[in-house]
Specification:
about 160 residues; Serine Threonine Protein Phosphatase 5, Tetratricopeptide repeat; mainly alpha; single chain
């Protein structure tokens, strides 16, 4: 039975990366329902919460937050919370979730990757001027929306789910 729950979870991750959130949610729910391993309970439930957030249901965020508070070992729970926080543009909370997860699991691939990706600042438009220079601020604000559109074509979250 444990093997089938792991397979369902992996299938859910694949569907999530493909953007098929309803199918991913079904897989995660089935894995959670069939799970007999208490060590995986929070991981599967947090995947459900993360997917709910991506489907527009913000109650999934509260589920992820509660599970991240009580999970002592699994960095995936913190990763799911960070992804949910980022999805609704809560960058500060996402960074806190990543840091919490890295304290639990310092070598977690997904958390380390996500930390590197969101920790980067864009280079200023006029790199020969100081970052705080008036021109850099004005032009940076004007170009930020096009930067976001470009980032949306290569979503960070789909790579680490």
């Amino acid at each position: 039975m444990a093997e089938s729950t792991v397979a369902l979870y992996k299938q859910g991750k694949k569907k999530f990366r493909e953007g098929l959130f309803k199918q991913a949610l079904s897989c995660f729910m089935a894995a959670n329902r069939n799970n007999q391993d208490p060590e995986r309970k929070n991981k599967y439930a947090s995947a459900i919460g993360m997917t709910q957030v991506f489907m527009g249901d913000r109650s999934g965020l509260n589920l992820c937050r509660r599970l991240a508070e009580i999970e002592p070992f699994d960095g995936d729970v913190a990763l799911h919370l960070a992804q949910a926080e980022l999805h609704i543009k809560h960058r500060k909370q996402a960074i806190a979730a990543i840091e919490h997860g890295l304290r639990i699991s310092p070598r977690h691939k997904g958390l380390n990757h996500l930390q590197r990706m969101i920790g980067r600042r864009r280079t200023p438009p006029f790199n020969f001027l100081e970052r705080d220079h008036f021109l850099n601020k004005v032009v940076g604000k004007m170009t930020y929306k096009s930067y976001l559109k470009k980032q949306a074509k290569h979503p960070i979250l789909s790579k680490v789910a």
